[in-house]
Amino acid sequence: MISHMRTTLIIDDAVFRQLKKLAAEQNRPLSQVTQDVLQRGLKEAKAPARRKAVELPTFSLGRPRVDIADRDQLYDVLDRS
Length: 81
Prior knowledge:
Layout: H1 13-26, H2 30-44, H3 71-80
Helix pairs in contact: 1-2
C-alpha cells in the first residue's frame, strides 16, 4: 500500500529556485524532484558507522607491592609518601 502525506514546508527561496530549475530540466513534477532530493539527503545524513574500538597496550608491572585488601598495609604505604 502506498501512502502519501501532504504537508507544508518552508523552503529558502534560493533552494526553491534550484528545485524548480532541476524539475524543469528533468521534465518532472516539483514534488517528485523534492522527494528524491530529500531521500538522498536522508541517506547521506545517516549516523556514521561505529569506529572499531582501539586496542590499548597492556604492560606487566610485576607483583603488587601492597595487598589492597589489607587496609593497614595500604595506609602505611600511603603515609610514607
